[in-house]
Structure formats: structure tokens, C-alpha cells
Amino acid sequence: MNKTILIVDDEEDILDLLDYTLESAGYDTIACINTSNVRDILDEEEISLILMDRNLPGVEGSLFIEKIRSEGYNQPVIYVSAKDLSDDIVAGFERGGDDYITKPFNVNELKARVSALIRRTSKTQTILKHKDIIYHSNNKSFTIADEDVKLTHLEHDLLLEFMKNINILLSRNTLLERVWGDNEGKQLKTVNVAIKRLKEHIDPTGKKNYIQAVRGEGYIFC
């Protein structure tokens, strides 16, 4: 599976150059001229790296990264920016950047640094995030709205399976195979009971409606 890189730059010629260069190097890319859809993309796609300009309309790129870092997004970031003073570069790192490339740039150097950062971080990303639910793989824990959630081992595995398959319909048989390990001798109502208990932990009021039942089909986590 190809790594996907999110590129954010309001200069269309730079955006096109980065898009072409990285696709030619074998990456999948998503290109944006502003940050308006970045959170939605990070929630819906498996992004391995963000290339972020700093001079963007309506927002300074490093301040935007600093903000989403505080919200739990931990994808590695390389700033690609015309801001090339030492203080600018230091500020970029202090606001959540992992690397910094100044414009104009050499495309071969950029590809090398992208490859190095993805290689370095691909095994260390420890957070999955969906809405206000965050999974921390380093200690196998979940938080919702910054509050710890106590789950049984089964409930943990069930919620994690949903977090890995956002907006995908999962049948009861699929859940039995992936979470319980098999579906031999297990009744489909086992899934129903487990999901009911999971909902009581993660959505006791029923207002957030993370897990939706599809009659006769299964469940969608959305």
C-alpha cells in the first residue's frame, strides 16, 4: 500500500510541482490550496506525512499545525516555506514541525527528506483519532474528550477494529472473525451484546451515535 502525502500550499505552481514530484516517486498525494478541509482529510484518510506551507490565506501554517497537534493529530510534518530566517525555522520546529525545507528547493533533496521522515516515523505513530476519540497504541488506551475510557479487553479490540474501519460497513460475521478470532460456534447476537456494552462506555447518552446499526447487514462506525 502506497504512503499518502497531504500537500497544503496556496501557490498552484508549487502545489502542482510537489504533487507531480511525489506521485512520480511512488506516493499517493492529496493536494489542498488551504487548510479548510485538512481535519476532514486527516480523519478520513491514512496520511503518512503533511507538507505544509506557512504563508497561507487566513492562517499561518505553523500555527495551524500547532493547533491540530493540540487536538491529537500526530502525522509528521515538513514545512515547505519561503520563510527562511533562523528564527522562522526555529519557530516552525517549536510549533510541531519535524523537518523544514526552504523555497526555492531542490526536488531531489525534498524527495530524500520525505522518504527519510516517513521511514523514521512510520513505526512510531501511536495515535488513531476519530472525532473526539483518541487511541494511544503505546499503552493501548482510549480517551474521549480527553477523558480516559475503561474498557474490557474485548471492548478494546472491538473499538479498535471500528477505528481502523471508519465509515465502512462491517458485518457481524466479519467482526466475529476479526475481533473474536473466528465465528465457529459463536452466535451473531454475541456481537450485538458486545456492541451494546461498548456503546454504554463510549456514548452513554446516545447523543454521539458513533456506532450505527444497519438492519440485516451489520454496523458502521462514523
Name a few traits of the molecule:
222 residues; alpha/beta; Rossmann fold; 2 domains; 5-stranded parallel beta sheet
What do these coordinates show?
It is elongated, with a radius of gyration of 20 Å. Strand 10 (141-144) and strand 11 form a beta hairpin. It has helices at 12-24, 38-44, 61-70, 86-94, 107-121, 153-163, 172-180, 189-202; strands at 4-8, 28-32, 47-52, 55-56, 59-60, 77-81, 99-102, 127-130, 133-136, 141-144, 147-149, 170-171, 211-214, 218-221. By secondary structure, it is α/β, with parallel strands linked by helices. Helix 6 packs across helix 7 and helix 6 packs across helix 8 (189-202). The mean pLDDT is 90. Strands 2-1-3-6-7 form a 5-stranded parallel β-sheet, with helices on both faces. A 4-stranded antiparallel β-sheet has the order 8-9-10-11, covered by helices on one side. Helix content is 40%, strand content 24%. The chain contains 8 helices and 14 strands. The chain folds into 2 domains: 4-121, 3-Layer(aba) Sandwich (Rossmann fold), CATH 3.40.50.2300; 132-221, Winged helix-like DNA-binding domain superfamily/Winged helix DNA-binding domain (Arc Repressor Mutant, subunit A, Orthogonal Bundle), CATH 1.10.10.
Topology at a glance:
Elements lengths: L3 E5 L3 H13 L3 E5 L5 H7 L2 E6 L2 E2 L2 E2 H10 L6 E5 L4 H9 L4 E4 L4 H15 L5 E4 L2 E4 L4 E4 L2 E3 L3 H11 L6 E2 H9 L8 H14 L8 E4 L3 E4 L1
Parallel strand pairs: 1-2, 1-3, 3-6, 6-7
Antiparallel strand pairs: 4-5, 8-9, 9-10, 10-11, 12-14, 13-14
